Amino acid sequence: MKRKYFGTDGVRGTVGEAPITPDFVMRLGFAAGKVLVRGEQHGNARPVVLIGKDTRISGYMLEAALEAGFSAAGVDTMLAGPLPTPAVAYLTRALRLSAGVVISASHNPFHDNGIKFFSATGNKLPDETESAIEDALEAPLECVPSEKLGRAKRLEDARGRYIEFCKSTFPNELDLRGLKLVVDCAHGAAYHIAPDVFHELGAEVFAIGNQPNGMNINDAHGATAPDNLIAAVRERGADIGIALDGDADRLLMVDSNGRLYNGDELLYIMVRDRQKLGAVPGVVGTLMTNMALEVAFREMGIGFARAKVGDRYVLEVLQERGWQLGGEGSGHLLCLDKHTTGDGIVSALQVLSALRRCGDSLAKCTEDLALYPQTLVNVRVTPGYDWQASMAVLHEKEKVEQELGNEGRLLIRPSGTEPLIRVMVEAKNAETAERMANRIADKIRA
What we know:
Residues 3-139, 161-258, 262-368 form the Alpha-D-phosphohexomutase alpha/beta/alpha domain. The chain is 36% helix and 21% strand.
């Protein structure tokens, strides 16, 4: 269904430009307050919503606007301060709150920000609920009577509660003693959390990207910029490097040789470990998941399904099929027996526990997974351009798919945030993938 403001991960944009303005965010808080608590039975208690944020300077302004909107709707708020996105999901569920809200633009630069919601169960909102919030935005903002206005208070020790939760997802019989880790927090929401989690489990931890100033989130650090982590791992002689993004819901890892492992490879390690512990009925990836995983899981006797791009859609398919493990190559990984949403710290602990159990390295655990070379070409187009209306593009697509056969894959999809058409080709040969992707891209440009 078509939505005006919500994308694949909440409402996001440049601060000061619609829709990320104080007045809109206040109206969004009001509309969400009305929709999220509709039909709930609270008795004499007020509905309560938890608000967390990452380290962007604009978070202060947007937090105040959201708080005002919720208050006008008669909803109390608990303010958690800087906190990873998955921490808000966990605390919302653990504290039996009505909803959770995160002020973050994830891996985007500091001048962007966004708003995303979690339900009372700690899950991202379904499309239908987001559409209902958009409908409610059309109504005027009307304040409840003064005696029914919502109140705000600070949630004490949100950080400590979440650290203990993360540690609880690591096996009791294992620890991280003797392991030297570099943890890159992307100057983001996990700067005061992630290093402590790994340290308290016994690892020697060197933290980088842990000095946020409101404007350096994701800047040359984190999962989208791993070069500094790679250098730090080599310089420190560390065993493993862990890269989170600004809101700590995605994960990449680096081995002692400086080799980077993406989300597809880390998902493979987790699935391989879980299969040794018991049956794994199936795994969910996305349209962008490397074809090598699909082939590997088939050979392992494990089902595989592809969802639309976005961890929320991976989650939906996992829930539909009753499976537990899924993820994206970007590093969004889901372990539904550990958490309701993607969590970079929890995912890192699952990979580390797999390595501890088998006694092998990241390289050894992935040596039989040969990722297909993948070429992605972004073609800028005029807004509203429909590539499927072009016979030339469709004809070239058919030719490429015939040439690839069962030894490759073509995906053409519009960007959800920019006027771009993304062309992705996988093939056993890198030169073939690049040549075929550019053939499609040239037809789109023409």
